[in-house]
Amino acid sequence: MADLEIKDLYVRTEEREILRGVNLEINRGEIHALMGPNGSGKSTLANTLLGHPTYEITSGSISFKGEDITEAEPHDRAKAGLFLAFQYPVSIPGVSVANFLRMAINAKREEPIQVKEFRTQLQHAIELLDVDRAFTSRHLNDGFSGGEKKRAEILQMAMLTPDVAILDETDSGLDIDALRTVAEGVQKLHDEQGLGALIITHYQRILHYVRPQFVHILMDGRIVLEGGVELVERLEREGYDQIRQEVGAAAGAVDDGV
Amino acid sequence: MSEIGDALNGSAAEADAADGTTAKAKAGRHREATLYHALHGAGAGDGRTLEELRAAARDAYDSLELPVWRRSGFWTTSLADVDLDSLSSAGADSVPEVVARTLPDAPFAGRIVQSAGAVVHVELDPALAERGVVLCSLQDAFGDHPELVAEWYSKRLTIDRNKLEAANAAFWEGGVFLHVPQDVVVQAPFQIVYAIDRAGIAQYGRTLVVGGANSDFRVHEYDLAEDFDGQALHAGAFELYLQDGARCRVAQLQDWGSGEVYDASTRLVSIGRDAYCHWLPALLGGHLVRQHLELVVTEPGADMAFRGLFFAEEHEHLDVFAVDLHETGPSGGDVHWRGAATGESRASFEGLIQIDPGAQRTHTYLQIHSMMLSPRARIDAIPSVLVSADDVSASHGGTVGELDESAIFYMQSRGLDRAAAVRVIVEGFFEPLVAELDDEALEEVVREKVAAKLAAAREDIETYATSR
Fold first, then answer.
1. What's the topology of domain A4-231?
2. Residue of chain B whose alpha carbon sits nearest to that of A91
3. Contact check, Cβ <8 Å, A51/B412
4. How far apart are CA A142 and CA A180, in angstroms?
5. How many CB atoms within 10 Å of residue B28?
6. Quick one: B393 and B307 in the same domain?
7. DSSP state of B94
8. Contact B420 A103 (CB under 8 A)
9. What domain count does chain B have?
10. Residue B201 and residue B194: Cα distance in Å, rounded?
11. What's the pLDDT score for residue B467?
């Protein structure tokens, strides 16, 4: 059984059905890329995996490390070892990055983390993400630039050591240097900690720095193509339209059925 | 703009009431000490002796009813439930336990504690005493420093705007006098404590603080009560005068505990030429609290930061009237309040910027942010601007917040449960002001009190948050 197992997942919001039968398996130590055009349901999947209340699972299941977490509270999923790097991280005024990290780490532990241990870990993460020490005393995401927000997400990921992380368009809005830092950070966490990752992206460029073993293409709420890294290259050559045409028959059939 | 219009209409109503028509006069009575009559009272700074002022206040006390403040359509604050006959001022000879429990274990320049009607503890750094700093009961100050006290006592503080203000001026006992002479700079705070240790007490606390030219100091006032059953009253009066170039940071920590404690107090800070004041009341509890707060710029070049935070819970009722008055310019003002309410509590905040004729080149801003944490709690905020000069900037803004679900989900995705996430949001909401206390020990006291209130209201908040 895979660490994260998504089975025939159907998800809707109040307005409409978005995911229509997603199947996906992710293990620790594996890097997956989930690609798809705008509106295909990528962010819905990311938020649903962490239990966002806006998204209603109408059928299917999510299990993590053998436990069914389809109905679990978001914080219980996090404690079990899931992590979501948000596309649009929310600002938390009045709380410093360091204090927030300490709270999040302690939420997972019986005993509060020792000051010294925390500092060591924080120092390691700071170096990994190439951020200023002063960065951690700023209020979380409050007045951060787009790049700073994304770095703060990966900094949290590094500190919380999840088993499987979902990165929701972490590459969007990043300049090439920031992108490289963030992507290399993810690769390192994979290499050093055995992180499993689902990298959700619209573009290919982040995948030049993090090499996925598995690539999935999501269209109209279903995974329509799966393969290895060669799929990224094909997508780069052909674009989504070409692929849509090829798989169009199947996707179209579903569309007609709705 | 609607608030400005409202304020101007109010002035017209006041004029009508003065003509003596019965109906309007009645409306005016209820509005006493809200916007339109706020700054007008009699008896201050006119050379009368303490005895004469006490006698005049006594007359006012006898002729006035217990006050009711009404903001039509918004709120009513009534002290009518105070059973004055059953309350009495009383002597005391020891420092109540709540004081030791609450005051931080940190250095201080001086400490004075009044329990019920008596000052029970006075302590002043001898090195400061040598430099002329005076910290003693106001009663003693009238004996030991008569000229100094006479110059400032009730110089601007009125004595007859309502029955409880009059009661204070007529009946005060003990009291606090602090004088920091010219050029004296003190880093550690002067602590002023008013404590009520049991039901049945009427405490008429009166504080006079004078900061000499170019002095620089801090005042931390603590208003504390033990948790008891039954009524008690604190009718306080506080006045602070900053002379040319003086700088002062004033913080007030108020937590009257779980008893039926009524607090109706008037506080005034007057800032002289090129002086600066940072004033931050933290109003953290009391059965029914009415605070009339005036910050007055009296001479050019003065600057101030008027901060405040409040947290009402259970069935508490809080009514704050905060005035930022500029009599001259150029001057600066920055008013920033934040409040939260849980349970079935009620909080109202009326903030007024008033710029008098001639107070040119005054720049001031008023903002009030509130956060309701229960469907049965209510916070009203009315910012008003009354401007009578043309070369000024004065504006106001504010937010009424509920819990941000996206922020809660964000934190939950990091492993914090819902209650913890809410706590982070509310603590973060207050944090910009708490940090401005610029005193770690006091900041910790405030943070702990906010955390305790959130913990107490946990169920309420969760029900509220999940119900929407």
1. Rossmann fold (3.40.50)
2. B407
3. yes
4. 23
5. 17
6. yes
7. S
8. yes
9. 2
10. 12
11. 56
What pLDDT is stored for residue B42 in this prediction?
52
Helices and strands of chain A, counted as H and E runs: 7, 10
Asked if A84 contacts A52 with a C-beta cutoff of 8 angstroms, the reply is no
CB contact under 8 A, A93 and B432: yes
Judged by CB atoms closer than 8 Å, whether chains meet at B420 and A107 is answered as yes
Q: Are residues B16 and B145 in the same domain?
A: no
User: Which of A51, A91, A108 lies nearest to residue B415, judging by beta carbons?
Assistant: A108
In a domain, B433, yes or no: no
| Residue of B417, B428, B430 with shortest CB distance to A92 | B428
Domain end among B403, B432, B454 = B403
Q: Is residue B468 part of a domain?
A: no
Chain A residue with minimum CA distance to B405: A53
Q: What's the gap in Å between the CA of A230 and the closest CA on chain B?
A: 33
- Given the structure tokens 């990055």, which residue do they identify? A97
Contact between chains at B414 and A73 (C-beta distance less than 8 A): no
pTM: 0.84
> What DSSP element (H or E) covers B164?
helix B163-171
- The closest alpha carbon to B444, from B241, B274, B253, B176, belongs to B253
Residue B410 has its nearest CB partner, among A77, A79, A86, at A86
Would the CB atoms of A95 and B420 count as touching at under 8 Å? no
Q: What is the pLDDT of residue A34?
A: 96
Residue B7 belongs to domain spanning? 1-29
Interface residue A55 vs chain B (CB under 8 A): no
Inter-chain touch B424–A100, beta carbons under 8 Å:
yes
* Within-domain flag for B97: yes
Predicted confidence (pLDDT) per residue in B211-242, tens digit: 999 999 999 999 999 999 999 999 999 999 99
Looking at chain A, which residue has its C-alpha nearest residue B422?
Answer: A92
Say yes or no: B220 and B319 in one domain. Answer: yes
Residue B111 sits in the same domain as residue B224: yes
Eight-state DSSP code of residue A205: G
How far from chain centre, in Å, is Cα A111?
A: 28
Contact B56, B160 (CB under 8 A): yes
Distance in Å, alpha carbon of A156 to nearest chain B alpha carbon: 8
Q: Is the dihedral of CA A167, A168, A172, A173 positive or negative?
A: negative
Q: How many CB pairs under 8 A join A and B?
A: 76
In a domain, B257, yes or no: yes
pLDDT tens sequence across B154-173? 999 989 899 999 999 999 99
Å between B99 CA and nearest CA of chain A: 29
Given the structure tokens 């996090």, which residue do they identify?
Answer: A78
A205 pLDDT above the threshold of 90: no
Nearest to A103 among B412, B418, B424 (CB): B424
Point out the residue among B415, B431, B432 whose CB comes nearest to the CB of A104. B415
Residues B80 and B1 in one domain: no
Question: B20 with B70, same domain?
Answer: no
Question: What is the rounded CA–CA span in Å between residue A253 and residue A187?
Answer: 38
Are B215 and B277 in the same domain? yes
